Amino acid sequence: MALYEHVFLARQDMSAQQVDALVEQYKGVIEANGGKVGRVENWGLKSLTYRINKNRKAHYALMDIEAPGAAIHEMERQMRINEDILRYMTIAVEAHEEGPSAMMQKRDRDDRPRRDGDDRGPRRDFGDRGDRGPRPDRGPREGGFERRPREDRA
Question: What is the CATH number that goes with domain 2-93?
Fold first, then answer.
């Protein structure tokens, strides 16, 4: 049997329990057609990049599936009919990932570069000046317009 990763997006107005019920429904479809479902991850309610059927957010869910192609075809057919499913995608993979998916892995805050620029080295001290110091007098601009008072104003 082939290995698949399947992700689907459910409407934003559904509850988490209803999304879990959808997962169980499609899990039953896969098992009825001779396959089995491994890892199931609910990624929660996330913002969409663009609106889909007037929805700005969607519930994301991932399923690792080991099943024949006919079982995947039947599950996708039922997802096309279901109005609660906004989008879905099934990808054939060589092997399932071990552990949590990339969406579920929590980034360690120490691994990211710092926003205050501390990773660029020490800051220079300008002493009492507070900035780079006084500007030298530049004089009038060359080749530019001079500012003159308007004579027509009274």
Answer: 3.30.70.60
**Residues across the chain:** 154
- Please answer whether residues 6 and 30 qualify as being in contact, where contact means their C-beta atoms are separated by less than 8 angstroms: no
What does each of the 154 residues of the chain score in pLDDT, given as a tens digit?
889 999 999 999 999 999 999 999 999 999 999 999 999 999 989 999 999 999 999 999 999 999 999 999 999 999 999 999 999 999 999 988 887 777 877 655 555 666 665 555 666 655 555 566 666 666 666 666 666 666 766 5
Read off the DSSP letter of residue 119. Answer: G
